Amino acid sequence: MEEVIIATKNSGKAKEFERIFHEKGMIVKTLLDFPEIEDVEETGTTFEENAKIKSETIANLLGKMVIADDSGLEVDALEGRPGVYSARYAGPQKNDEENIDKVLEELHGVPKNERTARFRCVLSVSQPGKKTVTFAGACEGLILTERKGTNGFGYDPIFFIEAKGKAMAELAPEEKNKISHRAMAIKKLEQNLTLNFGEDS
């Protein structure tokens, strides 16, 4: 079976990648499988910059092809925040519940039609000696006033998808993996690279 390395220690992201790539007959390894590798500092100002920093750093360390993901929530009424700071919006402890509480507090009193938002994801694919390529995906929605659902992770409980009539956290994993920002980015990656990811496109 082909192996793909995903540069993340986020267990929620790892599970999503595992589900998506397992369907394609691929084995997924993440940075959780390489505990000796320290966290890569995300110094970029965009999702693309951060994804590239992670994939290129880890690819050079391991000498293998690596896919890195940088993603987050953009809320229009908050001028695009939390954006690249989504994971640590309420502080460096990266606590999902505290992050949600902060967004809900900042949107207090904002009417439904002004609570538009999107999840955005950029995948960066790096191989030693080759040019890094990136693929982006997005999923549009609205920010709820309270949590709904128990699936997923991050901001999923307050992200409402009008076409589904549900919060992201109310969707089954299989359903989420068809419409999510990450799924959209992976679909673009598939369209542009050979399935085993080890050959040139």
TrEMBL record:
The keyword Hydrolase applies. NCBIfam families: PRK14822.1, RdgB/HAM1 family non-canonical purine NTP pyrophosphatase. Belongs to the HAM1 NTPase family. Pyrophosphatase that catalyzes the hydrolysis of nucleoside triphosphates to their monophosphate derivatives, with a high preference for the non-canonical purine nucleotides XTP (xanthosine triphosphate), dITP (deoxyinosine triphosphate) and ITP. Seems to function as a house-cleaning enzyme that removes non-canonical purine nucleotides from the nucleotide pool, thus preventing their incorporation into DNA/RNA and avoiding chromosomal lesions. This is dITP/XTP pyrophosphatase. The active site is at residue 70. SUPFAM superfamilies: ITPase-like. It catalyses: ITP + H2O = IMP + diphosphate + H(+); XTP + H2O = XMP + diphosphate + H(+); dITP + H2O = dIMP + diphosphate + H(+). Its cofactor is Mg(2+). It is an enzyme of class 3 (hydrolase). Gene3D superfamilies: 3.90.950.10. Homodimer. Keywords: Hydrolase, Magnesium, Metal-binding, Nucleotide metabolism, Nucleotide-binding. InterPro entries: dITP/XTP_pyrophosphatase, ITPase-like_fam, RdgB/HAM1. Substrate binds at residues 8-13, 71, 153-156, 176, 181-182. Mg(2+) binds at residues 41, 70.
